[in-house]
Design goal:
4 strands; 69% helix
């Protein structure tokens, strides 16, 4: 039992060390490969959301990669990828849809998801170590595989929870800023094509992001509750 406890503590310590390294590396990469967003229409929409939040300004930067994505850094800055802006230039997405991405990433920051993910990551490693040690006693060949599957499913579920919370925050902010949730929902319908249908064929409970129909349904349920 003491050996198992030591293994768990070692796994947690290692996970914390790797997470800190990952945060440092991510911040360094973002600093090196990003620039301030200089886009008048998007800045005007960001200013409307800043007014709704009663803050002077929302800092948005452009991450110079081709992927279509938005992200929030550990220090709270918001990024749109160059790939997303190129999709806007092609007419695939609108200014308001990109504003909904900014609102979503603001939700991650406001809800403390970056810190929560650090805790979740260490917990996932501890679960994996404990399950591996337990299952290997009875299933020596596939025990590690089953433990990894369970730990990954747990992490996916926690990540989906964060996405739903960030969606709800974004919906409330977009409504308050007078933009509405229409662009948020229309972008979700486009994302699978924009990201080359990533995640197709993978069970929903193993995806880090919820399914599109579930996200739209949650937004509409929130709207009905708020308006009611």
């Amino acid at each position: 039992m003491s050996a198992l406890l030591f293994s768990v503590l070692l796994a947690v310590a290692y996970a914390m060390l790797m997470m800190k390294f990952s945060v440092w590396r991510t911040r360094k990469l973002l600093d090196e490969r990003s620039n301030p967003l200089r886009d008048v229409p998007l800045q005007q929409l960001s200013d409307r959301m800043a007014t709704a939040l009663a803050v002077p300004k929302i800092e948005v930067r452009v991450f110079e990669v081709e992927a279509v994505n938005g992200l929030a850094s550990p220090d709270g800055r918001i990024y749109l990828t160059r790939g997303f802006l190129e999709q806007r230039a092609r007419g695939a997405v609108t200014d308001e849809e990109l504003a909904s991405v900014i609102a979503h990433e603001l939700g991650h920051v406001a809800m403390g998801h970056m810190r929560r993910r650090m805790i979740d990551f260490t917990g996932q490693n501890a679960v994996f170590v404990m399950l591996s040690a337990l299952l290997n006693r009875f299933l020596p060949i596939i025990g590690i595989w089953i433990a990894n599957l369970i730990a990954s499913a747990l992490m996916a579920r926690l990540s989906q929870r964060d996405e739903f919370e960030a969606d709800a925050y974004a919906s409330a902010l977009l409504i308050k800023a007078g933009i509405g949730t229409g662009p948020q929902k229309s972008l979700f319908r486009k994302l699978e094509a924009l990201t080359q249908n990533r995640g197709q064929g993978i069970p929903a409970w193993l995806l880090s992001h919820p399914r599109t129909d579930a996200r739209i349904a949650a937004i509409e349920a929130n709207e009905a509750r708020w308006m009611g």
